[in-house]
Structures are given as C-alpha cells and as structure tokens.
Amino acid sequence: MVVVLGVMLVLLALAAAALYLMTSQSRIAEGKVKRMRAYYAAQAGMVHALEEASNNTAWMTNITANTSFSVTPALAIGAGIDGYPAGGYNPVISVTPGAGLDGTALVNITVTY
Fold first, then answer.
1. Which residue, 88, 98, 105, is CA-closest to 50?
2. The pTM is what?
3. Which of 24, 70, 73, 82 is the most buried (most CB within 10 A)?
4. What is the mean pLDDT of each run of 10 residues along the chain (113 residues)?
5. Angle CA(77)–CA(47)–CA(102) in degrees, nearest 5?
C-alpha cells in the first residue's frame, strides 16, 4: 500500500514537471513568433521608407534640409491574418539626416508587438 502511494506520488511529480515544461516551451515559441512577425513588419516599413524616399518629394525636401521627421504610414501589416493583432502591425519610421554612416540619413523603424 505504501509502495503504491509512493509510486503514484513520483508519477504525479513527473506529470507536473512535464506539464510545466510543455507550457513554458509554448510561451517561448509564441514570443519568438511575435518577434519574427514584428521583424518582418519592420522590414516592410523599411521598404516603404525607401519607396517614399525615392518617390516623395516632401521626404527628400526634409532630408536635404537636414530636418528630422517621424511618420506612421497607413500600413496595417498582417491585418486580418489569423495570429496577428486586429489592426495589424503599424511601423513608425523616423528619419534623422546626417546621423547615419558617413553623413547619410539614419532611418529607424519601430514596431510594437
């Protein structure tokens, strides 16, 4: 009788440890997926910034006048896709002329995830 209770306690402890490991691994994997999605949303924001710098004269006017500016474009990256936030990821693009390598403009993309 005592042996059976001891074996049951050991099995219960093993089951609890396995459950804890599985749930913690699930949380770690979920965080990694969110970071990866935010990374690619920031990449999309960078592509948008390069496109705007090439085609938008207002951006080039600010850059050549050494005027820093920040833009939140109407990009809802991932909106409507299962697993993404309801409104998608919205990158914030900050441009600081002259702060980059060899006096180039520094472009910073921020995505909150």
1. 105
2. 0.66
3. 73
4. 90 93 90 90 87 83 83 83 85 88 87 84
5. 140
**Distance from C-alpha of 26 to C-alpha of 59, rounded to nearest angstrom:** 43
What is the DSSP code (8-state) at residue 63?
A: H
Question: How many CA atoms, within 13 angstroms, populate the side-chain half-sphere of residue 57?
Answer: 0
Residue 104 CA to residue 84 CA, distance in Å, equals 34
Residue matched to tokens 């409104």: 87
Amino acid identity of 49?
A
Place of tokens 């520094």: 106
Sign, CA dihedral 35-37-38-44, equals positive
